[in-house]
Amino acid sequence: MRSLVVCVVFFSLHMMSFGQDIMIKDSINQLKEVVLIDSLKAKQATGITPSQVIDIKNFQNFSPVEMVSSLNQIPGVYVLSGALNTNRITIRGVGARTPYGTDKLRLYYNDIPITNGTGFSTIEAYDLENINSIEVIKGPKGTAFGANLGGAIVLNPKKALQQTTLSNNFTVGSYGLLKNSLGFTHSDDRLALELHYGHMTLEGYRENNRFERDGILLNTSYTINTKNKIAFLLNHVDYNAQIASSISQNAFEEDPTQAAFTWKAAKGYEANKYTLAGISLTHAFNPKLSNTTSLFYTYLDHYEPRPFNILDEFTNGYGFRTRFLGDFKIRDHLTQYSFGAELYKDEYNWSTYENLYETNTEEGSIKGNLLSDNKEFRTQFNAFGTLTFPLADFFSAQLGLNINKTFYDFRDLYKSGAENTSGNRRFGTLFSPSLNLRYSFYPKQEVYMNISRGLSNPSLEETLTPDGIINPDISQETGTNYEVGCDLFLVNNNLKINVALYRMSIKNLLVAQRIGEDEFIGKNAGSTKHQGIELMLDYNLQLTSQFKLTPFMSYSYSNHKFVDFIDGDNDYSGNPLTGVPKHRLNTGLQLQWRNGFYWNTTHQYVGSIPLTDANTLSSDSFNLWHTRLGYKKQLSEKLRIGIDFGINNFTDTHYAQSVLINAVGFGGSDPRYFYPGNDRNFYGSLLLKYSL
């Protein structure tokens, strides 16, 4: 029995790091036009820290609109998507209690932090067709990427290969989908340039659900000499999205296409203009030491008419990130190190106005009197370092440390005198250490262990009392993560297995308690325990010289519970964590013919999700099936064509794609828990790529 336990732990340790390297190798071998340079760099920068990468091979399972479906293939990662503009990313249950949006993780685009000053990230501002790969670090073990309890997600944009190309991908589909992506790339010995313009419109499955987006991406670098390289990145997105919002259980069962009554009457929507600009310099001091330093600026202009008021806000953010990478030898063994820091500062301005839509039912929302006017200055500083050193020929260790300092300065510009609620909050400095151990018992057969500390900062709403005053009692969430895993390449490296077992305890649990239709207060209400098992399999089977078969699977078992959770007079200790399915399974099959045809089919199972802290109501489990058939052909030396056709949810399953936990009904209405998922829908794409 003892040997069996050791074997299982050893096997599971080994499986986790394996899935990451698998996908990189596959993408290089199978898709000649894709070279995952960014993913390899990111992995090198994190040393032996476990992470997982998905790339174009994985993106090809779904339509060019489906970033959420691609992310949901990763075990431990679950994205609840109310609409294209309403996504909540959870990693191992962290972030599941956030009412709207994504927090408690760090999001990076081309190694530039794009998470705002209170920890919120908007992945929907980025076009999947502009991304080469996505790397996910689960838990706080990636000290160079913020040590947040949820972890970090690194988006790596496409980069030009050694050629000049002009391409256009045109997609049409159900619900009025129209998407066009136009791209120009150039690369030579010194200059690499990617320029993309994208436009998308979608009428939507539900009422008041129209989405329109325009975006431009410029990603360029210039090699000055053998020691210096400069790069510039510009990403601008302008989108307008109507909001159907969540609906009650009765409405969800009777007619899932309907919008929430008040949101439909107000014709609620959000309009966003988002810009990210960054410049970076990479300098090699010598063959053993290099540095990359980035300066960046972000701007968000957000306008959102809601039934209860109209929100008008804009945010200016700026900062820098610097990272040194180096190595030296100890007794002929290579020791690697990295250290650096990042500073993010932003100025958040927001005002609310009366919404007079009830006086003008034909036109929808109308701005009324000013209700509030606020400004908040937010600062986050992270310093980090790692040291990776050999303990033996096949045994290495990595020590990491992240130091975080967070500061909020809130200004009430509307009230004066004794009613003014201005204030500031400076959180204590938090030290988050990490230890990674990795043992290679055979080439491409590895096991690892991780122990790491992490944190989550309160959101803006959680830092304020119901009267809008800075809450002096709110504290940061902190937690300790324990993880073992393994990465295995078997059957002549054709079978890749990644397994991880983890347990994370979180203290000072941040709870957003809803006290009004748009009012939340935060408090530290206890602790949670996150534990589970994650499995990822990928097998390449070359049946003939012309035909290749690739089955794959990922599974997540999430046993997450409240350990100590008292909310007022209610004791929820021992209940399952709200907003997290216990079981998730993704399976799929990719068929590839050498003549250019491919056929990919995927299946996703999501278990029931507890909707209330009291565990009195849960969503139904569901199964989703998607399929995509395509053909790619090099028609001539310069012209390449691609044709795709896909069906999403081809079994026409009725399901909730996202849920709102602890929903409260107002004015005698039923609580609105559910965001319906789309019914059966279709899409088709035409790609033309010309080499100049």
TrEMBL record:
Keyword check for Metal-binding: no
Protein origin, superkingdom: Bacteria
Gene Ontology CC terms, in alphabetical order: cell outer membrane
Main location (coarse class): membrane
Listed InterPro entries: Beta-barrel_TonB, Beta-barrel_TonB_sf, Plug_dom, Plug_dom_sf, TonB-dep_rcpt-like
Annotated SUPFAM superfamilies: Porins (SSF56935)
Membrane topology: Multi-pass membrane protein
PROSITE patterns cross-referenced by the UniProt entry: TONB_DEPENDENT_REC_3
Subcellular locations according to the entry: Cell outer membrane
Family matches, as Pfam families: Plug, TonB_dep_Rec_b-barrel
Domain TonB-dependent receptor plug: 50-151
Positions of the TonB-dependent receptor-like beta-barrel domain: 238-649
Keyword annotations of the record: Cell outer membrane, Ion transport, Iron, Iron transport, Membrane, Receptor, TonB box, Transmembrane, Transmembrane beta strand, Transport
Transmembrane spans: none
GO biological process: iron ion transport
Matching PANTHER family: FERRICHROME IRON RECEPTOR-RELATED, TONB-DEPENDENT OUTER MEMBRANE RECEPTOR
Family recorded in the similarity comment: Belongs to the TonB-dependent receptor family.
Protein's UniProt name: Iron complex outermembrane receptor protein
Organism annotation: Maribacter polysiphoniae
